[in-house]
Write a structure and sequence with these properties.
Elements: H1 2-23, E1 39-40, E2 43-45, E3 49-51, E4 54-63, E5 66-69, E6 75-76, E7 89-90, E8 95-98, H2 102-129, H3 134-143, H4 158-166, H5 169-184, E9 187-189, E10 194-199, E11 206-207, E12 214-218, E13 221-229, E14 241-246, E15 253-260, E16 270-278, E17 290-296, E18 300-307, E19 316-321, E20 324-329, E21 331-335, E22 339-344, E23 351-353, E24 366-367, H6 369-381, H7 388-420
Parallel strand pairs: 1-24
Antiparallel strand pairs: 2-23, 3-18, 4-13, 4-17, 5-12, 6-11, 7-10, 8-9, 10-12, 13-16, 14-15, 14-17, 15-16, 18-22, 19-20, 19-23, 21-22
Helix pairs in contact: 1-7, 2-3, 2-4, 2-5
């Protein structure tokens, strides 16, 4: 009974001893201490120079002129040459509207007739008293007609002026001039090249003096209204050339800052700047379209441009000093949508971090990508120096193979030892 339990125990003890014997041939490899973590960050070197800040602003295309057409006379709108249909395009000088002139024409013709009758009595008396000035007045009488109203001859004496006044020549002449001007006002011509935006009259309707009949907008000269902050205003000026990208137009246009308002909007705290755009050949710019204007502002002396994402706490940035993280406060003079410009706070040549850092701690180990690559290359070359690490690995492998051979031979000898006991 005792032999029945002791034999398995002896076999287990022999196996454990053999395992210990074989493990004695294996040498423990030295473990290298873990390398400290070094965060890799994107950097740039600080170099102060004159920089033109980039200013971008969105605006809406506006017509340079928007005019309400208001006739100065009343009358029936004629169908002839009528162009005041909404959306109708026209060129400068085109006839847009004609008002019936029958009554005005008759009044003008009657005045011309009265003037001719006055001259018929004035010329014989002038021939008697002042024959030397008769030829000028005769020429005026000969050319006078409803279709033509020549200029009055220049009077050279008081007697000549007295006779012309007595026969009401001056009065009738200037009355005819007034009625001629009224006749011209029955025809409304386009003051510029543009489009009809709204209309209130149509052919055969009645136009009344002083009442607007249509609204027209200019299309050959347009502008973009920008809302600029008080911080941006010092870097722009009248006459500055800018680039304009308009929605729906593939090509980028060139504009000029035409005027800048000196008044800030009370609610938005912005000032309006207007960019004049000349319509280029083959390009139709529609009023009301959105436009993006890019302005290269006036230069800032001794400045550095950094991405705004590199800032934290409004005016602080991180730098690398002796492979550790440091913090500096900078003097920002202007900020655009993506870029900040500063003039002081960091020494020339300093290594500035230009990416946002999460969970940053001052003094933590940091490095730039170039330093990280150099260290990685040095780490890869380190095992081949001197050949020692390579040999120790080879020896370990050979020792393992030798220790494996006795393992196959010793177990047969162990069994008899366990049976003798």
């Amino acid at each position: 009974m005792f032999r029945r339990f002791i034999i398995p125990l002896m076999i287990a003890a022999a196996g454990f001893g053999g395992m210990k014997f074989l493990s004695s041939f294996k040498k423990e490899q030295k473990r290298l201490p873990p390398r400290p973590f070094v965060r890799t960050v994107t950097t740039q070197h600080v170099q102060y120079s004159a920089i033109a800040p980039s200013i971008e602003s969105m605006g809406r295309v506006l017509s340079l002129e928007e005019v309400q057409l208001t006739p100065e006379v009343s009358g029936l709108v004629l169908n002839r040459n009528f162009m005041l249909y909404k959306g109708r395009a026209f060129r400068k000088g085109d006839i847009l509207l004609m008002i019936d002139t029958v009554q005005a024409y008759f009044s003008y013709s009657s005045t011309i007739s009265d003037l001719q009758n006055a001259l018929a009595g004035f010329l014989p008396e002038l021939k008697t008293d002042l024959p030397q000035v008769l030829s000028g007045w005769q020429h005026f009488f000969s050319n006078l007609s409803v279709d033509r109203l020549p200029a009055l001859p220049e009077t050279k004496s008081d007697r000549e002026k007295f006779l012309a006044t007595r026969y009401q020549v001056y009065k009738l002449y200037f009355l005819a001039r007034q009625q001629q001007n009224t006749l011209e006002k029955h025809t409304i011509r386009a003051p510029f090249t543009g489009t009809v935006e709204t209309t209130q009259v149509y052919p055969s309707s009645m136009a009344r003096a002083g009442v607007a009949v249509a609204t027209v907008v200019r299309t050959d000269a347009i502008e973009v209204e920008l809302a600029l902050t008080e911080q941006q205003l010092p870097y722009i000026y009248n006459g500055m050339i800018v680039s304009v990208a308009i929605e729906g137009i593939d090509t980028e246009l060139t504009g000029t800052i035409n005027r800048i308002s000196n008044v800030l909007d009370k609610r938005m705290q912005t000032a309006s700047a207007f960019v004049r755009i000349e319509e280029s050949a083959g390009t139709i710019i529609k009023s009301g379209a959105y436009a993006k204007v890019r302005i290269a502002g006036s230069e800032i002396g001794n400045a550095v441009a950094v991405p705004r994402k590199a800032l934290h706490n409004k005016s602080y940035v991180y730098t690398i000093e002796s492979d550790t993280l440091a913090e500096h406060r900078i003097v920002i003079v202007y900020q655009s949508v993506d870029t900040a410009y500063f003039t002081d706070g960091i020494a020339e040549g300093a290594e500035l971090i230009i990416e946002p850092l999460q969970d940053a701690v001052i003094g933590m180990a940091v490095q730039n990508p170039q330093t990280a690559r150099v260290r990685q290359q040095q780490t890869q070359k380190a095992p081949s120096r001197g050949g020692k690490p390579g040999k120790s690995v080879m020896k370990t492998e050979k020792t393992a193979k030798k220790s494996a051979a006795p393992t196959a031979q010793h177990p047969p000898k162990a069994r008899p030892a366990a049976g003798a006991q």
